[in-house]
C-alpha cells in the first residue's frame, strides 16, 4: 500500500505506523496507551510484549511479529483484538482517539521531510523512515497524588497505600503490579527508539515534572540537538511550577501541555487528592501567562468515571468558565506573538477538553453504575450541557462539541457489571479511610450506590 487510508468507513489507525509506547517500570511495550492487552503474549511464535534483559531493544519490537500483525490487520481493514477501546466507541457512533488524533495522521503524511503526501506504509517497518517518529514513554510511577481513577502503576502514593492496605490489592481494584527489577541499562533501551528521526514525544508518569528519569530524557534530547525538532506532549497535575517549565520546555520545538483537571471544586479535591482546585488552577494560569514558553498550547484531560459522574451539573459549568478564561489569555498572547514579526507563529490551537473513558481500574469505571443510576447521570449531563458557559465553551473550538458528547458515550458503551459494583462497594470505604476522604460527602447518590442490591 503506497498511501494510508483515511476514509471514515475504513478501519485504519496511523499510530502503529508512526509510534511506540513503552512503560519503564515493567518493560511493557505496545503500539499505544489505548491498547487493551489482556494476554501478555502474542499468538505469533509466543512473543511476549515485554522488553527484558535479553531483548532490550525497542527497534526489535518495532519490526517484530506483534507490530507486523497489527499493521497488517489495519492494512486489510480489520480491527486488532487489542484495539477494542476505539472499536467500542466507534460502534456507539462516536469519534474515537484513532480518528481524532490528527497529529498522528499528519505525521504519517509527512514521514518523508519536504515531500508531503508521499509517505508509504508497510507491515515490516511502519513508515518511510523505518523508525518510530513518535515515542510515548512512561518511565515510572513517581507521583505526589493518589487519584481516584489511578492505579499503583502510575502513582507511588497509591503503591504505598496498597502496601499498607492489602485488602485493596485485588484484580480490577488497585492490584499492585509495580516491578522494580532492573531491566538492564534503561538509557540504552530508550536510545534505541530516540534519535534525529524523532518528531513527537510524549512523557508521562506518574508526574513528569518530578521524575528524574524523564529529566534525563529531556537532557539527552537537548544535548544531542534533537529537541529543536521535537514536539513534546505531556500531561501534568500542575501541583508545581518548577524549572521544567522555565529552563527545559522552551528548548523544544513545540509544547503540547495537558492539565489533569478531573472535575472542579469538591469533586476535583476528592478525585485528585491531596491536590486542591484553587492552587492548581492558579499554577496553570501562572504558566500560561508567563513569557518563558513561546511555542506551546494547553488543553485539559478529564477521566470520566464514577467519581466525577453524579456531580457533573456542578463542576462542568465551572470548568467551562475556567476554560473561557484560559481561551481569552491564550488568544491574546497568540495575537501579540503574531504581530511582533513574521517569524513568530501564533501557536493558538484553541483550548481543548479531552474526555478519557475510565477503562481501568474497573472498580471506578462507569460499568459500576446500574441502569437507573446511569439514567440519573444522563439527565445531569443534559442540565450541565445547557448551561450558558458550557454552550459558549462548545463554540470556541470545533473539537469541543465532539468531546462533550463523550460524557453520554461513556454511559452508552459501559455495560453494567454487578461484579464491578460489588468491588466498588466492598473497597471504597477502605480506600477513603486510607486517603482521608469520603465520597459520600460529594453527592447523596453515592450512599444509595453503596447499598444498591445489598441484602
Could you characterize what this model shows?
- This protein has 455 residues and is an alpha/beta fold.
- The protein has 2 domains: 15-87 and 98-135, no CATH class; 139-181 and 237-451, no CATH class.
- The chain has 20 helices and 8 strands.
- The chain is globular.
- Residues 39-47 and 338-346 have low confidence and may be disordered.
Which key features would you list for this structure?
about 450 residues, alpha/beta, 8-stranded mixed beta sheet, 20 helices, about 40% helix, about 10% strand, globular
Distance between the termini: 60 Å
**Total domain units:** 2
Tally the helices: what do you get? Answer: 20
Side by side, the strands of the main sheet go 2-1-3-4-5-6-7-8
Strands, total number: 8
| Low-confidence spans | 39-47, 338-346
Rough outline:
globular
| Structural class estimated from helices and strands | alpha/beta
Percent of residues in helices comes to 40-55%
Largest sheet: 8 strands, mixed
Overall mean pLDDT: 85
Q: Radius of gyration in whole Å, from Cα? A: 22 Å
Proportion of residues in extended strands: 5-15%
Element order, helices and strands? HEEHHHHHEHHEHEHEHHEHHEHHHHHH
